[in-house]
Design a protein that fits this description.
Helix content is 37%, strand content 13%. It is α/β, with parallel strands linked by helices. The protein has a single domain, classed as Luciferase-like domain (TIM Barrel), CATH 3.20.20. The longest helix has 19 residues. The termini are far apart. It binds flavin mononucleotide. Flavin mononucleotide binds next to strand 10 and helix 10.
Amino acid sequence: MTHAPGTPRRQIKLFAHLLNTGNQMGGWRHPEAHDGGLHDIHYFLRMAQEAEAAKFDAVFFADGPGFRRVVGRNAFAAMDVGKLEPVTMLAALAMGTSRIGLIATCSTSFNEPYNIARKFASLDHISRGRAGWNAVTSTGENEAHNFNFDTLEGHATRYARATEFIDVVRGLWDSWEDDAFLLDKVGGRYFNPDKLHALGHRGTFYRVEGPLNIGRSPQGHPLLVQAGGSAEGRDLGARTADAIFTPNPPIDAARAFYADMKARAAAHGRDPAHLLIMPSIQTVIGATESEARERAAYLDSLIPPDLALSWLQMSLGGVDLSGYPPDAPLPPIPPTKGGHSLRQGIIDRAARYNLSIAEIARHVAATRLGERFVGTPTQVADQLELLFKTGAADGFVISAPWLPGALTEFIETVVPMLRERGLFRTEYEGATLRDNLGLPRPSNRFVENPDLHVEPEVWLPAEPTAGEATV
Ligand SMILES: Cc1cc2nc3c(=O)[nH]c(=O)nc-3n(C[C@H](O)[C@H](O)[C@H](O)COP(=O)(O)O)c2cc1C
């Protein structure tokens, strides 16, 4: 494909998924995986700085406020436990980096919109326009038990809640117009009260008056990421998100997902180019293809089979497969109120490749679903180029199987190839995460539509009303 002079070149976007000691369930046991524990911010800082030096768009932190139920007392040694809270962590990473985006996962089921709006606006100020929020509905029963719920809310309710939650957060982010703060010492005017807007939200799940007590942030709205793949998740993402995380299914399914999301975005009146589709990619790289395969087999040998089965059962919504022989096919799996698309993706994959219970369990534990790219740097770069150029992806979430070394390998071997092919930047294009992703800065809803203005309740009347204390 030739590139017309003067038009911006479409290039691959890259996020680094810094999931503890790696995205492969046995990755933490790799001899070179980080072994200093996960409470050490410098470990994450070094990886963020390395990704920044390689000009990645962002680092991404998955999260859930609780454990997932699995067998074995040492089950998720380094996948789920011993973690720093991600927004807190990103505030620290913001001070040790200057260009790379900082994306954290926070649940819409187990937070309040005001708190989330405030935290990410703060992070956007602290990082000077590099903050992103991965909004998830959460699928864990155990997470629900940490937040006054006896049980996880149903799927439809979680998405209805998420839809309202995100609308409230975005409304709060517009509380202040960009030029509201005057800081006029001589005139004694700190801000222009006409440029401050309450929200006055009264909905099904939330009552939020506003305004937010922090000024509009450098990006206007921090980046919004969404990862739900069910019909409800897709629609929410297509309407509200800037980027969609998705597993990396076989390429025909990836293309169908991409086309579906772009069509949904257009149906919501959006420019489809402003919704980035970002599959999560796990790579195992070797100097030769056979070396890469050996390395993948070694990594997979680090996963205890009973742990893989347990993770599979949990991913399928808590089914009990212990009564089936490991080499049997998956039995019919009942619907679950947990995540829909991950469950369906596992069932589809097992059927497509005729996998036994043990085989699909090993696959999910190794990749957490999706195609894994095992091969030489050239082969991996070829795969990424194919997805990017044939309507399956706008960029990739690089989910290294073990950390930090497998990310370093990707950076040192695959990234230069993408660059040589003109597919990846040599320098950051802009100052903010949105700039680098080629996404517009959202306008302020109250400027766009003055009829939406709600007068803040914050002003005291000029004359004290009867009974009101005067200080
Ligand atoms: C790349 C990727 C990252 C994800 N990260 C998280 C996460 O950090 N926390 C979480 O609770 N869910 C995470 N999810 C799960 C989804 O957000 C979503 O909850 C799940 O897919 C169920 O949605 P669905 O019912 O619409 O399919 C992730 C999914 C993908 C594909």
